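pls ignore typos typing on phone
adenosine-5'-diphosphate + seq
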Amino acid sequence: MDKILRVNNLTTSFITKSGEVQAVRGVSFDVGKGEILGVVGESGSGKSVISLSILGVLEENARIKDGTVEFAGTNLIGLSKKEYRKIRGSKISMIFQDPMTSLNPVMKVGKQISETLLEHNPNMGPQEAKERAIELLRKVHIPEAPSRYHSYPHQLSGGMRQRVMIAIAISCEPELIIADEPTTALDVTIQDQIIKLLKEMNAKQNLSVMFITHDLGVVAGICDRVLVLYGGLIMEEGKLNEIFYKTAHPYTLGLLESVPRLDQEKTQRLMPIGGSPPDMLKPPKGCPFYPRCRWGRQLCVEERPVFSNLSDTHRSACWLLLPDAPSEDNPFYGRQLW
Ligand SMILES: Nc1ncnc2c1ncn2[C@@H]1O[C@H](COP(=O)(O)OP(=O)(O)O)[C@@H](O)[C@H]1O
Ligand SMILES: [Mg+2]
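k done
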């Protein structure tokens, strides 16, 4: 599969009064053309910092210390603000958790779409932009699109506002959409509709999507492949089925136990992972998940685990997967993961 995005060794920190917050510590992955990649991890794992690093919209105190972000063959790291603006919103679009913060509260939603169109298409006239905006409202299944054109954001429900954001995001026919927790603020039914809509756009326009969520349950409904992130590092990466059925990391196992699953009995108890995420001002030397891991041992404290490749598409950074790892107290021993 051709790649639209290649992220290599991305390392992003924040300079704060208390010291350096090492938010993302050398992360490498890619997104295929037309693929939906899920990025999953608890709050604070570095998901948003990865997306903001790709988009070139990090806060002032952020430093990209190392790595490259290749989009359609060009490294974006180090581009000028002007060059970045040309890419953002036209070739790469973004959707955030709260549409209210990205929509202008005092401008009609239709106008906000047509303004975006005009900004990116210098030859388009205002009438054509309006027609295209209404067409886009229809495309994201907003009922009565011509009259909704004249609504203000506060007159729409949360789900409808997120649809408007998607209309804006796809208005310039981007190649990649980065959606950062786009359904987190919505109730479950609406969440489902928004996911269906993103999948529809992905299928119809061969659009690539990076779908960021803290909820492993949500990725099952939308993603082809999943990255599991913790403490600014990739813990496990694989196709959806590999992550769910050949789970090869204690952290992913923990996430799975804390989401409801349709294939298991309703009576199954949901177990949140005990403990809390590491302090990124002083990230642990070894595996960041060690303090919360049921199976951690001395080596995990001392050295950061290397990746074991379980298939061409599946890798996991856990010492318990090494061929010479002890069999005793090893959840992966004897399991057919390879
Ligand atoms: N502007 C900032 N200054 C200092 N630390 C930050 C800043 N933004 C994010 N962080 C820290 O970076 C880490 C990763 O954050 P983030 O990517 O937002 O997590 P999430 O996975 O929840 O999206 C967290 O420890 C967070 O506190
Ligand atoms: Mg976030």
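The chain has a mean pLDDT of 93. Residues 47-48, 180 surround magnesium ion (ligand 2) (CB under 6 Å). more later
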